[in-house]
């Protein structure tokens, strides 16, 4: 996957500082090139990244506190961007959120670099925690917000814990995308999960027949 | 966790061969000791295991084809055993299956050795595949069998794909137990998930009030 396919993020690791988009791209592309060449996270160094990107080490340190923070931004640049929610009804917003998880799952399967980056993050507790705080937690908060609105608008049972409801919705998709890398992620899976979780697995009492 | 807490498995890596339970235990305990001492899977060798267990290398090779297969048996010896299903109704069997996943999640949190063993397995594609084939796949097949019986007995919608239904049930528990190590795994969670997934998240049409 090339960087041209990725979107720039509005929020980066260093806030409120003017920055050159082009330099940042060159640095991120440099890390991607190194990762694609099979360089591991342990072997990555700011010096080596600087050399590959054709910038000075100070230029990198002005933007990121170290290679770990930079690494997370590289992953964010390659992963599908967080979605815009239509905001019309809970059901449709949930479908968009789950579709984004499906796209992330597909990206991790098709991009060896991303797959490798995820694996490396998981083996480093510090980076995993930072990725979790910067990427996973905000996404989860967004899902909970959608569910809260759904409860308010009468689209979601009010007697179900929101954290549990969220796990019931994202759990099946994450299980397929992350834990079962051989499982299918077909088009329409997001709708299927959301609608079936809302409807329940019990046989429908026959009122129409 | 001591080996005394673990149950011997009826099926081992080598079938139809008479074996000494005591020797096998000594070998498995030897690997556990090495793992607890912080020895990594990469550093483990059959020679070192043999020395620790006080047996010859040939004794190990008579039982396991190599350290990878032995490692999987060590993990199985420490993990909670697969449950006996009551077999009365689908709902109760599902609760037992999910409760077992919850117990496994708790075990992986409280046993540093098990946690470490899981992490090491995941970083080795070959061992992970073997663990999947020997431990995860049969457990999944059991869940699908319970759901199939549920469909036959009218406890489960017949218009839902069984694989999807299974992911809808185990997904929320796995998400908490595996993907969100900081999430709570309270008592009663298995019942809560099963009943809510069966019932659905849509507000109940008020007929009783």
From TrEMBL, chains A, B:
Organism encoding this protein: Streptomyces filipinensis
UniProtKB keywords: DNA-binding, Transcription, Transcription regulation
PROSITE patterns, per the entry: HTH_TETR_1, HTH_TETR_2
Cited Pfam families: TetR_C_11, TetR_N
Record protein name field: TetR family transcriptional regulator
Lineage, opening ranks: Bacteria, Bacillati, Actinomycetota, Actinomycetes, Kitasatosporales
DNA-binding region: 45-64
Domain HTH tetR-type per the UniProt entry, residue ranges: 21-82
Gene Ontology MF annotations: DNA-binding transcription factor activity; transcription cis-regulatory region binding
């Amino acid at each position: 996957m090339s960087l041209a396919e990725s979107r720039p993020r509005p929020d980066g690791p260093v806030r409120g500082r003017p920055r050159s988009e082009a330099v940042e791209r060159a640095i991120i592309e440099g890390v991607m090139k190194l990762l694609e060449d099979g360089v591991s996270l342990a072997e990555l160094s700011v010096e080596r990244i600087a050399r590959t990107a054709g910038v000075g080490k100070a230029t990198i340190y002005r933007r990121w506190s170290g290679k770990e923070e930079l690494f997370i931004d590289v992953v964010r640049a390659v992963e599908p961007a967080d979605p815009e929610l239509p905001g019309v009804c809970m059901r449709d917003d949930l479908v968009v959120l789950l579709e984004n998880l499906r796209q992330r799952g597909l990206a991790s399967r098709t991009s060896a670099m991303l797959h490798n980056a995820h694996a490396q993050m998981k083996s480093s507790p510090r980076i995993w925690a930072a990725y979790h705080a910067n990427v996973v937690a905000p996404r989860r908060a967004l899902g909970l917000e959608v569910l809260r609105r759904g409860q308010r608008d009468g689209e979601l049972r009010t007697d179900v814990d929101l954290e549990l409801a969220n796990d019931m919705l994202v759990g099946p998709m994450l299980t397929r995308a992350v834990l079962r890398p051989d499982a299918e992620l077909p088009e329409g899976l997001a709708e299927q999960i959301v609608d079936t979780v809302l409807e329940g697995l019990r046989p429908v009492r026959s009122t129409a027949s």
